[in-house]
Design brief:
The protein is an alpha+beta fold. The protein has a single domain, classed as Bira Bifunctional Protein, Domain 2 (BirA Bifunctional Protein, domain 2, 2-Layer Sandwich). The chain is built from six helices and nine strands, in the order αββαβββαββββααα. Strands 1, 5, 6, 7, 8 and 9 form a six-stranded mixed β-sheet that branches. The chain has a three-stranded mixed β-sheet with strand order 3-2-4, with no helix packed on it.
């Protein structure tokens, strides 16, 4: 269900859907969105990892939103595909590590099969998907009563200069986008389809695209 949505509105939608999923009022659901530029701070986030002052953030119109996912500071913005799986882990062995592994794995396979890009997950160290020493996809989830929210952020045509505002994930590591790796701007509609299809294949599920109004 791709679309552009304000981050805070998407966050409230996730809370609503998570509650419904916990009450078995809906099936597993995947939200696929883009956001206007925003900085989010996870449960282990440090304000020192945001390099802009409050005044600079205000002048740029950039909000900092504190959230309940794991991890530190992240940036979301146009050209980045953000996926929010609202999934009940009871059907997946209540295995959070397995779930995160599968989120990383489907992007690795997408990059390999569609673009011949060798990406990897950093076993036992850092979450996310990496190409060389730079991160192309960040992962951070929250789980309540074994139902997930938050998810992944995949840099497709993302303006990488915006990452200079922060220390991404608090790791002092670089970031990269698919546009940067291929040298061409990608068709976002096609990329949303790739993400949906590879995710569905990895988790052995089919998603029917719906409007937000149909979910709430």
């Amino acid at each position: 269900m791709p679309g552009r949505m304000d981050y805070e509105k998407a966050l409230e939608l996730q809370y609503t859907l998570q509650e419904r999923r916990m009450n078995n009022e809906m099936d597993d659901t995947l939200l696929l969105l883009e956001h206007p530029p925003v900085i989010t701070l996870g449960t282990r986030g440090k304000s020192d990892n945001i390099y802009l002052s409050e005044e600079e953030l205000k002048l740029l119109g950039i909000k900092v939103v504190k959230v309940n996912r794991g991890g530190d500071v992240t940036y979301h913005g146009p050209g980045q595909i953000v996926g929010y799986p609202i999934f009940g882990l009871n059907g997946f062995g209540k295995d959070i590590r397995w779930f995160v592994y599968r989120l990383e794995k489907f992007i690795i396979e997408l990059l390999k099969e569609e673009f011949e890009i060798d990406a990897y997950r950093d076993e036992g160290r850092f979450t996310g998907v990496w190409v060389g020493d730079k991160k192309i996809m960040a992962v951070g989830i929250a789980v309540k009563r074994w139902v997930t929210m938050h998810g992944f952020a995949f840099n497709v045509n993302t303006d990488l200069s915006h990452f200079a505002w922060i220390n991404p994930c608090g790791l002092n590591k670089g970031v990269v986008s698919l546009k940067c790796l291929t040298g061409v701007s990608q068709d976002m509609n096609r990329m949303f389809e790739y993400v949906r299809d590879y995710f569905s294949k990895e988790f052995d599920c089919d998603f029917v695209e719906k409007k937000v109004e149909e979910l709430i």
